[in-house]
Amino acid sequence: TLRQRQRERGRNHEYGRYNKDRRGHHWLWRLFTFLGVMLFFDRGLMAFGNILFLGGLFFSIGSQNAFAFFKTEPLKGSGLFFLGVFLVLAGWPFLGFVAEAVGAFYLFGRFVSQLISNL
Description:
By secondary structure, this protein is mainly α. The chain has five helices and no strands.
């Protein structure tokens, strides 16, 4: 009926806006992290990139799923990633970037191997 189609259109519109916001967070995170690295590990840009990444992650998959992800994944990866975020915010952007990269490798390394095996 007409009413059902209007409801479906309204849901799709909201979902489309939600996707646009999520993509915006993702691209802003990439931009600020890239600029932070290219400008010799600028602390402010990298800190803002970290905040955007964590905010985008929680915004994309929800807070319960994000907390569950960091709790169920290896603690070494989660600990190194958050240590890296802390180091960037504390003023050691290069060490923080390295710790974040190693932590991200431990967190997402399994996904990369699965992706490669499926290709």
